[in-house]
Amino acid sequence: MRISDGEIRKLRDEIMQEIDLTRQLGDEEVYRLVEEHAGRFSRERMLTLRERDELEQFLFHSMRKLDVLQELLEDKEITEIMVNGADHIFYEKGGRLYESDRHFSSKEKLGDVIQQMAGYSNRMVNEASPIVDTRLADGSRVNIVLEPVALDGSAISIRKFPECPIGMADLIRMGSLTGEAAEFLRALVCSGYNIFISGGTGSGKTTFLNALSQYIPREERIITIEDSAELQLLDKPNLVRLETRNANTEGVVPITIRDLIRTALRMRPERIVVGECRGAEALDVLQAMNTGHDGSLSTGHANSCRDMLSRLETMVLMGMELPLPAIRSQIASGIDILVHLGRLRDKSRRVLSIAEIIGMTDGEIALRELFRFEETGEECGLVQGALVRTAGLQNTEKCRRAGFLSEGVM
């Protein structure tokens, strides 16, 4: 637009002076005021219709929405938004990063937007608590780091999620896994196998966990536990969603993932789904898996299935000093299946490995790879390949009890 930041601030101030602060105004009333002032300004400056529309949207977003971020949030093709201070905004579209030509008018405006974001889920972010995880009204996940902890200005990272959750059929269509592997995982989930999903940042762990959770039988009681609620389980009537709470300066007691897992065990769950294990809560997840809560699901950051086992050992030690053989025994008896996701060089997200834990061998956890992604080449910049079956399931007891052995998917 051919309009300076100063002119926009002046217009916004003029509109704010006309707003009746003694009563709650709806969006329509505010937008009418914006149209009046933008129309008058447009005639004086001889703006085109397109420029006038952009000005109206910009003013309205800055007053009632999330300012310059609103347009990016409304673009369905954008999957991630990153704010590095007031002057630098980046976004991911089609798997590639771009820098936006928009920026916040001031550090103060960025601060206002941050407080608005934190308020959506009753979180508090200030100098005493400069780091917070929250979510927006549409479910997008938000991480905020205030300056001076963020040296170059307050930083925001927004992970957007589609309006309609991505299901396993969508993942098959996108080439993330094969129909055979999806049918195999369906049988495992329905049979009550404990499954742990691993992968790097942005590999699609939460999306895959959500898709996998749709296989849980409708009649079962499910409890989900997350730092910031992201999972969208459809058609699950007996669903309880739990979310952590941070401490604040008003004396509110924090509620951690560990607290929620212990509480969930008293709520008669048939399935416990933990969004992500990052620390000592791994011990509680393993204890839940080892005390009759079959079919539990969770995720964690790792570079491979084997690496995920090492990370789980470390996370358990963060919660309690236990001998390493005891920890490995807990992992081997609690987790049945590991699914590892990765992001390839063409930015596609794929299931790279599905492995079964088959017990202990010489003090080490023994893994048996059941599916492996095999690359066959590259075409038009896109990696070609698919998951290939490498072995059959060894521990078939749960499948036998659930009646899936006869279906031939094991």
3D architecture notes:
It contains 13 helices and 15 strands. With 410 residues, the protein is of the alpha/beta class. The protein folds into 3 domains: 1-64; 66-163, Beta-Lactamase, CATH 3.30.450.370; 168-407, P-loop containing nucleotide triphosphate hydrolases (Rossmann fold, 3-Layer(aba) Sandwich), CATH 3.40.50.300. Strands 9-8-10-11-7-12-13-14-15 form a 9-stranded mixed β-sheet, with helices on both faces. Strand 12 and strand 13 (349-361) form a beta hairpin. The longest helix is centred in the N-terminal third of the chain and has 19 residues, at 27-45. The N and C termini lie far apart (60 Å). The mean pLDDT is 87.
Short note summarizing the structure:
The protein folds into three domains: 1-64; 66-163, Beta-Lactamase (2-Layer Sandwich), CATH 3.30.450.370; 168-407, P-loop containing nucleotide triphosphate hydrolases (Rossmann fold, 3-Layer(aba) Sandwich).
